[in-house]
TrEMBL record:
SUPFAM superfamilies: P-loop containing nucleoside triphosphate hydrolases (SSF52540). GO terms for molecular function: ATP binding. CDD domains: AAA. This is ATPase. Residues 33-175 form the AAA+ ATPase domain. InterPro entries: AAA+_ATPase, ClpA/B, MoxR, P-loop_NTPase, RavA-like_AAA_lid, RavA_ATPases. It comes from Lysinibacillus antri.
Length: 373
């Protein structure tokens, strides 16, 4: 299937919601990967309006939406108890039209969930199963979008719920003055393209076929290692689940192969506390930086040519050849120092470390041969 319809949806949503490019892309990625997404930020940032668009985008789907308060009851989310069954002493809920039977859902102020709602909500989000009077019901829930005006506090018992959201976005007011003015002046209405549930299913199956190269797995391992070094340790499960997001991001951008650029998405996946975001973003952007690839593409062929020239010169037994070998070794050492300098500046790039170690070993071996030349 062509991804153009998906890109048209993204374009239309961007025309409706100013300064929300990342959140809009993430929303579509969540749909494609069947993952859940959390928006945290102050009132009036458009979290609810944007989240509610899912019910309009996917035709023929059952969309459930609810605002939680401290006084919300399970009836409001999972359905009322059946009076007929209650007379028989059976505590069974009528889930028709409620969250357990929804394809997509938006729960506003989700951290207001009390213990009576929380346990059933956790199972439903994580396993797509709702237990009605002890009987498991398979839920069609594909993606749940949640929002909150505030972050959770330690000791509230909400950590497990918070962890269920693979994508987390800190949503703030419009940043740029020009964008804010454009929003004020905009009184147009946008028609957002739609897709059907069947089309979404086909998109999701195609996303599963997106290839992840070994270099991306290596980059993920490097990110994990560097985060551990600074005391941040996302779970192994979070890293594993993030693969579906990377595939969806690549697919949305018209590719069947994940690129290093796609790793930027993880800046909204790997943090637990908001104060961790800057550190995580710095590490990920350093690993994603394309200038390193360009640098390696420039240095590697030059170094290989120098080694070949040294080997050819050593085949000649003349004073000129010996002088030439000395000059070539100095050039090789100069290239090595360039790599070493960049490695110090960007210690998280494994390919730089491997290039530096390879150059050092080969220069050392070649120097030993020259001494006996």
């Amino acid at each position: 299937m062509d991804q153009e319809r998906l890109r048209q949806i993204v374009k239309s949503l961007n025309a409706m919601f100013y300064d929300r490019h990342d959140e809009i892309e993430a929303l579509i990625i969540a749909l494609l990967s069947r993952q859940h997404i959390l928006f945290i930020g102050p009132s009036g940032t458009g979290k609810s309006a944007l989240s509610s668009m899912i019910g309009k985008i996917v035709e023929g789907s059952h969309f459930f939406q609810h605002l939680l308060t401290r006084f919300s009851t399970p009836d409001e989310v999972f359905g009322p108890l059946s009076l007929k069954e209650l007379e028989q002493g059976i505590y069974q809920r009528n889930t028709n039209g409620m969250l357990p039977e929804a394809d997509f859902a938006f729960i506003d102020e989700i951290f207001k969930a009390n213990s009576a709602i929380l346990n059933a909500l956790l199972t439903l989000i994580n396993e797509r199963i709702y237990y009605n009077n002890g009987q498991p019901i398979i839920s069609p829930l594909k993606t749940l979008i949640a929002s909150s005006n505030e972050y959770i506090e330690e000791g509230e018992g909400l950590e497990a719920l918070y962890d269920r959201f693979l994508l987390r976005y800190d949503v703030q007011y419009i940043r740029e003055q020009e964008t804010f003015l454009a929003m004020l002046k905009d009184d147009s209405s946008q028609q957002v393209p739609t897709i059907t549930l069947d089309e979404l299913y086909l998109y999701q199956k195609q996303v599963e076929l997106v290839h992840i190269p070994d270099a991306i797995f290596s980059s993920l391992a490097t990110i994990r290692k560097e985060l551990i070094n600074i005391g941040i340790r996302p779970s192994d499960r979070r890293f594993k689940q993030s693969l579906s997001l990377l595939r969806a991001k690549a697919y949305l951008n018209g590719r069947m192969k994940v690129k290093r650029d796609d790793l930027v998405l993880l800046t909204n996946v790997l943090w637990e506390k908001v104060e961790e975001r800057d550190q995580i973003t710095k590490i990920i952007y350093e690993i994603v930086d394309d200038s390193v690839d360009t640098f390696i593409e420039r240095i590697s062929p030059k170094f290989e040519t120098l080694i070949m020239d040294i080997e050819h010169s050593m085949m000649e037994n003349s004073i000129a050849a010996k002088e030439s070998v000395g000059d070539l070794l100095l050039q090789g050492k100069s290239l090595y120092l360039e790599v070493q300098e960049l490695t110090i500046k960007m210690p998280n790039r494994q390919e730089l470390i491997e290039l530096k170690n390879n150059m050092h070993k080969r220069l050392l071996d070649m120097t030993k041969q020259v001494i006996g030349f």
